[in-house]
Amino acid sequence: YPDHIMYSTVLSTLCCKYRFLRDDSQTGYTTLLEILRNKFKKERKPLISVEDMKKKFGAVDRGRKHAPEQQQPLMKKRRESMQSEEFPGEDEHRTVHTRERMMEKKSTEEVLGLFPFIKHPKLLLHEVELRFGVNLERNLMSGLSRMVDPIFRLSSGPLLTTVMSYIEDASDKTQENGLRMNAALLLLPAFFRERENLFVVDQVPPSPTPTIVFKGTTSPLAADDISVCVDAIEILSDYPGMDITLAVECIFSLYFSLGIEYPKALKNCLTFMERYFMKLSTSDKVPLPVLKMYSQITALLLGE
């Protein structure tokens, strides 16, 4: 490579376009052909490696001087750090894929020790966005806001009475929309006749799966102390501005970041939120109760 046909094709085309390059030979490009052959066949052959090129063309003591510890190639250093199983607990600058592999191998307590940023809601949501390309906060706000009214219209029972009473008695009417969105999330487990205490509790959660915990009141809407508990470890506590909506975003972040399966007694409710609020689901298989509930809500929206 290149062969005679390639030489002839290139040079004949070149000489036809730029006639001043033609020589007095029969073909018109014998001189150029010899020049190209020298370049491809003679000068290129001895340049076997980069070191040979440096010896042939480089100057002595040329280039930037490095300290001995800096002479190790950066990619080699990176590969060694990636292969290491022991990472500093406070180093939060590992790649997403490395963190994902480590979270699969460690217990919840070990993961929290290695990656303390999980205890901060905004950083936890950012981790999900990096890994799955989904902004949970934006998706939940847009998906839930349009379904709040149908959820209230389809709800019944003592829980609906309790949340409606609290919303009506709220002194700050400017927060009514936020309270209604929080209340709509609390009403969803009853739609599917599933266990509410696997979603929100005011005591020690009965399951190791991510659960919202509120304290100091009988109503989660009125609680000033809201946290998230996973595997009997309370995290995301003492965070100002934590409400039910943000807590729901955090429990989904934990489900997906830590690879936790939904509890069977709350699976339909969480699947509904995952698919239609969080936009995390890409599966074509949807449980029948979830489809029925979405159809009822859609019918009410279209009826409006």
Radius of gyration: 33 Å
The count of strands amounts to 4
The average pLDDT score comes to 80
Unreliable stretches covering 5 or more consecutive residues: 68-93
Measured by DSSP, the beta-strand proportion falls in 5-15%
Given the structure, what is the number of helices? 14
N- to C-terminal separation?
73 Å
Main sheet: strands, sense, barrel: 4 strands, mixed
Structural class: mainly alpha
Strand order of the largest sheet: 1-2-3-4
Description of the molecule:
The chain is built from 14 helices and 4 strands. With 304 residues, the protein is mainly α. The protein has 2 domains: 4-57, no CATH class; 136-303, no CATH class. The protein has a 4-stranded mixed β-sheet with strand order 1-2-3-4, covered by helices on one side. It is elongated. 24% of the residues are buried. Residues 68-93 have low confidence and may be disordered. Residues 59-68 have a biased composition (Basic and acidic residues). Residues 59-96 are annotated as: Disordered.
